[in-house]
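re: ur question from earlier - yeah i can do the single chain one, its not a big deal. heres the input i used so u can compare w yours
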Amino acid sequence: MGKRIISQARGKGGFTYRVKRKAFVYRVKYPKELKGYGTVINLINSPAHSAPLARIRYDKGAFYIPAFKGMVEGQKISFGGNEIKEGNILRLGDIPIKTFVYGIESKPGDGGVFIKAAGSFATVNRWENGQSKPSKLAKAQLDAFCNKMVEKGKLKKYI
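and the output i got, formated as tokens:
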């Protein structure tokens, strides 16, 4: 008898293929109520996440989000405005078609749970009943997305 191939060994989930619990230091989500502007304080390489994390400071504190491709320290990010620019956190209903997005909320105010892995993104590809709908999500998840927040851009990959 031979040994298991590597994908089988990873699927079993032994200690070699698990992330250590102490790696999850940062809570990756944005606050429920965001208004105004924030600044990227620093970019962090977290061992628990596939994409680099960005620490964003705003008037009520700081939070962590996955860094998008092209993000730099000191960059200004707006929350909930109408400006369509890389990194801004906007309502999905305000984003035009053919825009790349990531960090989509499941329920309004949950901080973004869909499309957070490195190199991933969704495309806003259609309007139905006055609501924009991103691709890459199941039909059951696409209902009533208009008031949900989303981050514009593509996620950064590690080099």
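Residues 24-152 form one domain. not sure if urs matches, ping me
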